Each structure stands twice: as C-alpha cells, then as structure tokens.
Amino acid sequence: MTYEYKRLRKAKWRAKKKARATGAWKKYKQLQQQMLQTDATDPMDPGYRRLHYIRYADDFLVGINGNKAEAEALKNWLGEYLREELQLELSAEKTVVTNAKNRVRFLGYDIKRWSGKRILRFQTQQGVKTQRTGAYQLTLLMPVDKTIKFAQEYGDTNSWQGKHRNKLLNLSELEILMTYNAEVRGFLGYYSLADNLADAAGGVLWITMTSFFCTLAGKRQCSIKKVTKSLKKGPNRYVICLEKEGKGTKEYELITSTSQLKKRKVTYGSVDLIPKTWVYQSRNELSKRLLASECEWCGIRGTQVEVHHVRKLGNLEGKTPWERQMIERRRKTMVLCVECHDELHTGTLSEKKKKLRKIRRAGYAETCKSGSEGVSVKPDIAIC
After folding, report:
1. Range with the lowest mean pLDDT among 91-95, 133-137, 138-142?
2. What's the chain's average pLDDT?
3. Interstrand relation of 248-253 and 232-234 (parallel, antiparallel or unpaired)
4. N or C: lower Cβ tally within 10 Å for the chain?
5. In a 3-state reduction of DSSP, which class is residue 38?
6. Whole-angstrom distance between the N-terminal and C-terminal Cα of the chain?
7. Of 212 and 261, which is predicted with more confidence?
8. Where is the Reverse transcriptase domain (predicted)?
C-alpha cells in the first residue's frame, strides 16, 4: 500500500469521526473522492512478485506477477521437476507463456486481464449496489467458438435461425421441451461464471428457441406462428401446461433467458454433470418388456407374447407361484408366451418351467457373445 493512500485513509478516518460529532461531512466526502482517484498499490514496484497455481486433473494454470524471463525460467524448472521426480514429460506444444492481456483457454473458459478499472453491479436485499474493482483484474469469458459449436446442432449459425430435429419428433411435446431445457441448462450452467454470459448467451437462446418451435411445428404439422401463439403466456414466455387430476394445472416453461437459470453458490464440492436428456426420451416400462419378446416365466424368445393383467394386486392371494411373483415385483401385468398363458388360466402353470428361464437366458448370452444371434423377429403381441 502506497504512502499517499495510507495518508488519505487516516485523514478520512479523522474527518469521519469529526463529522459524526459536528455534522459537517463536506471534508469527508472530498477525501473519499481523492481516495477513489489514488492507487492503493504501486503498479511499477520492481520488488513485487506473486505466483498463483490452479490445477484440475492434468490441466494446470500458473499466474505470475513478473516479467517474461521469470515465467520462462519457471517453465524450464517445472519441466525438469516433472521429468526427474515424476518421470513425466511436459508438453512443449500445450505449455505456453503468454501475456494476461491476451486470451488464455483453461477448462473451456477464456481468461483475460481487463486493461482498466471496472464497476460491478450486483443485487442485494437493499437494492442494486456498485463496487469498483482494482486495475489488472482477471475475468472469465465464454469462448465464441464454443458457442458456435453448440449452436450448430440446432440450426444455421450464419443466419442464427433454428431447424427442426427429426430425432425428437416421436416424443411428446413435454418431453421435447424438457430435452431442450436440459441441454441449454447444461451448457449455459457450465459457463455461469463468465462475465459475458448475458451477451454471449443471446444467440444460443435464440437459435435453441427457434429450433424448438420448428420441431414442435413439425410434430403438429402446422406453422411456426400457430405454435408460438398457442404457447405464449407473456413477454418472451412460452409454456406447456399439463393438467393432473386433483392437482390442478402445472406449467413447464421453455428457457429463453439467462435469468431463468438457477445460479447456486460455487463451492469446492460443486460438480458439473452431463445433462441426462435420455430420461425424457425413454419408453415406458411395459413397452420395453413387450419389445423384449421374452416370456417372463419360461424365458422363451422370438415367439408371440401375451400380457396377463389382474385388476388389483390385493386380489392375489399368493397361493400359486405366478401370483407370488407378481406380488414380489409389484406388477399387475406379466408378459407370457401363449403356452404359459393358457396353462395359467387352466391352473396347470408349472414352477419347473420357471427354472428353464435361467438356462435359456444363459444360452442366449453365450449366443450374443459368439456373434451368432441370428435375425431378430418382430413379436406378435396380444393383451388380455
């Protein structure tokens, strides 16, 4: 801290103490303005040195307050240490020495030094507050190439217009919306620390929103204008409503702004997870069992299957093996082959056939490993 800044700080403290007693705050405000215009540290101090080290897995970043010669010497020492102590080789192509005023890529972020002082604005319970930062502060930026690469999956990045996605047309409208939200939330959530998030995310949100409308228009076989009109519930707010018996109507909103992203406090325990979009695209449990074309009692495959359905699990007494199996699995349905289904209704379904299922499944696994699975047969399905 410079001598001039210390002198002003002491004078400001004395003026504040005197102003509280007399009510004369003019001198205090003058000293406060002088402090804002005075550097607290000497940027030209030749004896000042500082080193910052950040590592994530096998990627690391070293920040040095010093000259380039010292940075080169540290790089050479680090290469020798890794080679002699850890038997590792430092990549000369990936390890570079550069000035902080140029952008540096680290963990997907661009790190850059601001050339001047910045005024930060942040929301508090008392309102919007402003705070000045010191000179030569580092900032995190969202890279432009990462934004374009993500947006290319949704449309044309030259005109920034979205396109429909055929692979989502077989999903319900709610599943399509949840898929888009999960993908956008995963990408922008990773770059939530970027200072230019609000500016850089505008193009991403626009192209994903137009792509969603195109996909929904393709599913409904109507125009995009009709889709937006049916979903719009306010300025830049698009909602799909789902009515549930006894619970009213629940709204699912499309992410169209960074203000809709929930920003959590950054901690050392925070982990970035890949968005699980597959949970919105899976079939229901009964459909999977039917498409498996496997009898759930004897284990035979590739034959016609039927579904045995009971009204309530409470009606089952558990006297027969197949009743006990349905009770244990808590299922009101059981997929059976025609032979087992007929035996179930006649009361002759044997528990010995159930043991054949393990043998057949083991043999089927060996067949798949050897590559002689054969041609798959689309099953015939009947429900009774």
Report:
1. 133-137
2. 79
3. unpaired
4. C
5. coil
6. 85
7. 212
8. 1-111
pLDDT tens-digit series, residues 274-296: 665 555 555 555 566 666 678 88
If you search the block for the tokens 């550097």, which residue do you land on?
39
Q: Name the range with the highest mean pLDDT among 90-94, 131-135, 147-151.
A: 147-151
**Per the structure block, which two tokens stand in for 368?**
């798949």
Rounded distance between C-alpha atoms, residue 189 and residue 274, angstroms: 11
Residues 6+ apart with CB under 8 A from 365: none
Closest CA to 150 of 189, 204, 213: 204
Predicted TM-score (pTM) of the model is 0.57
pLDDT digits (tens, 9 = 90+) for 326-366: 777 777 888 888 888 988 888 888 877 777 776 766 665 55
Locate 237 and state its tokens: 């707010």
C-beta of residue 323 within 8 angstroms of C-beta of residue 313: no
CA distance linking residue 53 with residue 81, whole number of Å: 16
Distance CA 142, CA 201 (A): 9
Instruction: Please answer whether residues 140 and 109 qualify as being in contact, where contact means their C-beta atoms are separated by less than 8 angstroms.
Output: yes
DSSP 3-state of 238: strand
Q: What is the pLDDT of residues 231-258, one digit of tens each?
A: 888 888 888 888 776 777 888 888 888 8
Both structure tokens of 314: 């409470």
56, with CB counted inside 10 A (0-12, 13-18, 19+), is exposed
Contact present, 129 and 183 (Cβ < 8 Å): no
**3-state class percentages of the chain: helix first, strand second, coil last, to nearest 5:** 45, 20, 40
Cβ–Cβ < 8 Å for 59, 106: yes
Structure-block tokens of residue 285: 């449990």
* Alpha-carbon gap, residue 209 to 307, rounded angstroms: 42
Q: Provide the b/e sequence for 177-214 (b: ≥16 CB within 10 Å).
A: bbbbbbbbbbbbebbbebeebeebbeebbbbbbbbbbb
> Could you tell me how many residues make up the chain?
384
Average pLDDT over residues 35-60: 79
Cβ–Cβ < 8 Å for 384, 307? yes
Q: Taking a C-beta distance cutoff of 8 angstroms, is the pair 210, 315 a contact?
A: no
* DSSP states of 192-225: TT-TTHHHHHHHHHHHHHHHHHHHHHHHHTS-HH
Residue 19, exposed/middle/buried by CB under 10 A (0-12, 13-18, 19+)? middle
